[in-house]
Design goal:
5 helices; alpha/beta; binds inosinic acid; 194 residues; seven-stranded mixed sheet
Length: 194
């Protein structure tokens, strides 16, 4: 029987992406499944801290082994911003459309469009904490393109491609993305340690 592992997220897109990758190794249990509807605070100053805040919260409150991810879009010309502030870049509303508008405004007329997505996954397994990182480099374009994915996907073209994540769709995104890379590291670890 596969081990059950809580994924501490309320983001349906993240759940779908990660479930596709881990499906042969563990059964993902969502926050909804454990009846957790809390808004877990992300007050850390790094992705690592925020990922740990989320997994620790679930582990302490419910006692389950679990993992959480935190992701940031790091833009070279903005010295790595929005980074850990990616969700609240345009304010506290977690409004992806407003975040995109703000980012495109900040980059208006800026030649250097280099950026990268970075995901950190924290895992708590049998009382021990582990971190896994995934990074994908690419460029921020000037106008949104595509309807798949979520967040900043319509304005990010991964290196080696001509289309945004939102145009490429989940099948390709899930082979190359920041989250896919971190999730594959998580899977390799789980295979060896469960
Ligand atoms: P968090 O990891 O949920 O805190 O996400 C931080 C911000 O980055 C949010 O605005 C998300 O919408 C955005 N984000 C997270 N993962 C992705 C992704 O895979 N593609 C595009 N945007 C993302």
């Amino acid at each position: 029987m596969k081990k059950k592992l809580v994924f501490a997220t309320n983001n349906a897109h993240k759940l779908e992406e990660v479930s596709q990758i881990v499906k042969d190794i563990v059964d993902i249990v969502s926050l909804n499944d454990i009846n957790c509807h809390d808004d877990i605070e992300e007050t850390g100053s790094t992705l690592e801290e925020n990922a740990l805040l989320k997994s620790r919260y679930i582990n302490v409150k419910y006692g389950f082994d679990c993992f959480a991810d935190d992701t940031g879009l790091e833009v070279e010309a903005l010295n790595g911003l929005p980074g850990v502030y990616s969700a609240r870049y345009a304010g506290n509303a977690h409004d992806s459309e407003a975040n995109i508008v703000k980012l495109l405004n900040e980059l208006e007329g800026v030649q250097n469009r280099n950026a990268r997505f970075r995901t950190v996954i924290s895992l708590i397994l049998n009382g021990e904490e582990y971190l896994f990182e995934g990074i994908i480099s690419g460029k921020i374009i000037t106008d949104r393109k595509g309807n798949n994915g979520f967040g900043y996907d319509p304005i990010f073209i991964p290196e080696g491609y001509y289309n945004t994540f939102a145009e490429l769709g989940n099948e390709i995104k899930n082979k190359i993305s920041h989250r896919a890379q971190a999730t594959k590291k998580l899977c390799d670890f789980l295979i060896k340690n469960m």
